[in-house]
Design goal:
It comes from Neorhizobium alkalisoli. Keywords: DNA-binding, Transcription, Transcription regulation. With 152 residues, the chain is an alpha+beta fold. It has 2 domains: 8-48, Arc Repressor Mutant, subunit A, CATH 1.10.10; 62-135, Alpha-Beta Plaits. The protein is built from 5 helices and 4 strands, in the order αααβαββαβ. It has helices at residues 8-19, 25-32, 36-48, 81-89, 117-122, and strands at 68-76, 94-99, 106-112, 129-135. A 4-stranded antiparallel β-sheet has the order 2-3-1-4. The radius of gyration is 20 Å and the shape is elongated.
Length: 152
């Protein structure tokens, strides 16, 4: 993959969009020290180069009635990898899932209404995989951008 050089204006635009993905082009330009149209062109270039992949929103699981989150490490039993993967994809309470190296194949983040909800979500996997669950207590580091290479 080609490394893309970012200048201070690109970095300022990215940081501003991370704070508010609905920021106006005028505000982006002001933050970066350029005009609104120039900021719009930079955003378009950052999208074209694959640096900006999407504009998203954060949805509060708590506001939707989910009191808990769980991190579940999942090790499919022999021959069950694709069945487990499909089950995770089809479970709406799985809000994120990564494939990983090591003994586990998947690390899934699930939202739960209460602790009893965990049994309902994990029981269908027990004949297909071994699981290890941790309940999330807090988020001391929220999702953030990786450091720009010249920041280190």
């Amino acid at each position: 993959m080609k490394k893309v050089a970012l200048d201070a204006r690109d970095r300022a635009i990215i940081d501003e969009l991370l704070k508010d993905s609905r920021a106006s082009q005028q505000n982006l330009g002001k933050r970066a020290g350029i005009t609104g149209p120039a900021a719009r062109e930079r955003v378009r270039r950052l999208e074209d180069e694959g640096i900006i992949e999407a504009f998203t929103i954060d949805v509060s699981a708590k506001s939707l009635g989910y009191a808990l989150e769980a991190i579940v490490r999942i090790e499919p039993l022999p021959g069950k990898l694709h069945i487990v993967e499909r089950a995770l994809q089809e479970t709406p309470e799985v809000v994120q899932c990564d494939t990983v190296t090591g003994d586990d194949c998947f690390i899934a983040r699930m939202v739960l209404r209460d602790i009893q909800d965990l049994n309902r979500l994990l029981d269908p996997l027990h004949d297909k995989a071994r699981t290890n669950t941790s309940i999330v207590k807090g988020n001391p580091v929220r999702p953030r951008r990786p450091p720009f290479l010249n920041e280190q």
